[in-house]
């Protein structure tokens, strides 16, 4: 997702303005000039300045140079080009969605089934064949559970499928 | 002397030795996989360190990061894809050597000079740290403020991107650190009524999100790298002594540059490699051979990035200010294990410090045999398809973040920071600067506000003490440096234009 400097710069500046405003609203410490509001306000002003500079393209020349250096080493960028279909680029949302699914479902149905679903779906998204994705989804969660639950004592939720250890 | 014996006893404990061995193997494997960086290897290791003894925890971080920085050279050399950003500077050179049929020499040089560089960095840590500790005992909040600020500025200076965007990222990190109740007034700040945010945002979920989840996202929208052709290697270390004799000057220069860059708060191994490679080319007698498979730059940059790794621990141990993103993670572990960074660490916990030195040396020695095994196994490890590794990494991110506090909110943070990291990196905002901002935010604010309260709101005392004046000058110079470079370029026409 490549945005123009104007968009990212304005976003940074807006965030800075909000931080400054939010900071200024914080209650002061009685009998003292300097309180919890100072630091967010300093940062907010800094962000506003940076945001404006980015939006006006100041410092962009440094970026081009660094990119040229890196392109010389790694060849042209391997990121999906805008010409790729939208469905391909939307796959970028899959990892965070799977993490949120874990948060939602882990306590309800347990670690092993949730992890199996996560691994199966993401393996398919990486275009793994079924005969690779299925065994991986069945075995990997059990191994991870063994390491984290048994050896490291992380209280992973047992849910519907408690492990024998 | 007693402390040294005690240190050996600490290191030779079976749990520490096992931790070193296992985390070395782990670091070698993760570092060699393209897209999985040394920082990510360290971040995913943190939940594991919770359950280790203090020395074993630190040992596993030291071993894993040193190995990962070396093994990042392997895919760079064989596939022209750097395994870690620290290898990117000389990937082309190493790949050219492989094409010339010198893969053994290139990989051997990476291994040999990484190990020597690591030892040189450790020696600098041993020599420098106690000297600086004495100086640091006299530091007040003013010095700490400038030092932390200098670290943040260095992180923005070395980012290979627009300095304005780097500063913006750093400020974003500081803003994230503002969230929570840990502020001078003890009031909930930017929590928006969410109870989980009251405790602030822990650096670990943010790190895991920014460095690991965003890599998974990037991998999912980019094509699979080409498979590695099977090859048999000859002797890996043959010819390295001859190279050492021939290029000892370059090696020493690489070590020194790496050490200096490592000690600077905020600048780490990737920067050391880029600077050293450029330097090697500039001072070389045969600059034209660079890029065609010439080992000179490889020697210097390989010596440099591993040297910076050890010296990066100097500011981390003395001031709690990270030398790079890896030590940023390590500082969190030090606090957790009761080894709070600070100059008194060297007087009160001397045996732990000696143990740390021994671990560094040990890790760099076992790097050579383990590295040789790794190089020989590389063709099979690198053939593991992404489709099997990335899903497992994703689950490990979730479990690892959960383990930091046993709450599910951390996983939401991981997902959020994964997206933030991916979007930022794609738009030229360096995420390492943001991470340092998050890690150092509380410290910067505390030293800043305490100093302001002491000075009654006046800014003058920030510059009055001699050391703080020097640090302030350095910080302001770092802030103005990009503007200086920019106007220098403007005033001096480019060589191509002159030729026209």
From TrEMBL, chain A:
Residues 9-157 form the DUF1468 domain. The chain crosses the membrane at residues 38-58, 97-126, 132-152. Pfam families: TctB. It comes from the Bacteria. Keywords: Membrane, Transmembrane, Transmembrane helix. InterPro entries: DUF1468. The keyword Nucleotide-binding does not apply. The keyword GTP-binding does not apply. This is Tripartite tricarboxylate transporter TctB family protein. It comes from Microvirga aerilata.
